[in-house]
């Protein structure tokens, strides 16, 4: 935590004598201004009095030898000095008041701050003012009112988390970073080793959260592809590159997209990672895609056990579209600048699209998937899939109908017959998402906040999240509720430690 003094350019770490330095500077400033102003005003008086008083012998102004000055000169010099001192007094008083207010603000802010950091990492910023929170996650899980109350108090504080630059610094020394985060100490069972998984992480900001997601899903025999947005900040890019350099089974996608909301570029980002994952030496069984606000609800051991029960089928949403949703792919869309949140999104035009190629019936779902290796192998070389991808390029949010449609195409490995019932977000275990218009009916109310109708979870939902049965959930934000993510990490760590290797 840095404090700034009243003097421009002076920076003090917490605990340095801020006020002592400030007072001495103000006193020196007043003395200097008195001397300069007195000299200037005396010279001005000489010029004004030349016509009546005759020539003067100029001596050092305001010195002890100023007895040759006329009484009128002495009065005028004294008047100017008095006025200047009055102004300097008001200036110094105002400056001191501003500094005192700044100190009070900093004191209150620091007192009400909570530093949010992954387990095992402590940045220099946090070492200056370490305000860690003491929370019992087991009690939060049991919905203990006292512990839930503590979690709510923490949520109201100023949340200070690691930034991208901190992750860059922490990952600069790979050995220290891996040791601090225990990446090499993850318990792995024989069942897990024989069933490796692949991950596609499409992210664009918040490197500390990306690292926490990676840490929560990490196993040394799995393979991880990270796709970062070409528009991401240099610090974020450096942070994720450092992460990839520190672990042999983590890599950056070979082809990067400038991802726009609801645009084909979002789908292409996953496809780029999938293409790279297929070329990797790891013979993974399933590929899973995640974004920067997802978090796992199952340990790798639990996930493998449930994936084995799929017997090669896929897990993702696939439903028949409503008339409103059909508008997304019945008309051509153009990427345009818009005066709100995303700035560039696909906008519907009046041009109707032709029917999908090969007689494909379009289904809708979400961007999230869990796909078998056989399914991915097949679609990577399918002409039907290639044509459908090209047809989807000018639709709205094609990632939300591309995968949902492919899984219904007859002949693809693990396909779902078109006649089968809709696979909704509650049936598909890929992602647990709370929509505000369904709260109170399908699931309890959100205890965090909402973003575009989606709940950003709060700590009181820990038990519900872990018991619902889904594999991953969305959305999480440490600045909305840091306790929940901490407790999820703790619960996943407990599950990991219970695995028999």
Automatic annotation (TrEMBL):
Pathway: Protein modification; protein glycosylation. It is found in: Golgi apparatus membrane. GO terms for cellular component: Golgi membrane. It is a single-pass type II membrane protein. Keywords: Glycoprotein, Glycosyltransferase, Membrane, Signal-anchor, Transferase, Transmembrane, Transmembrane helix. The keyword Transmembrane applies. It comes from the Eukaryota. Its main location: Golgi. One of its GO terms (molecular function) is acetylglucosaminyltransferase activity. Belongs to the glycosyltransferase 14 family. This is Glucosaminyl (N-acetyl) transferase 4. The lineage of its organism: Eukaryota, Metazoa, Chordata, Craniata, Vertebrata.
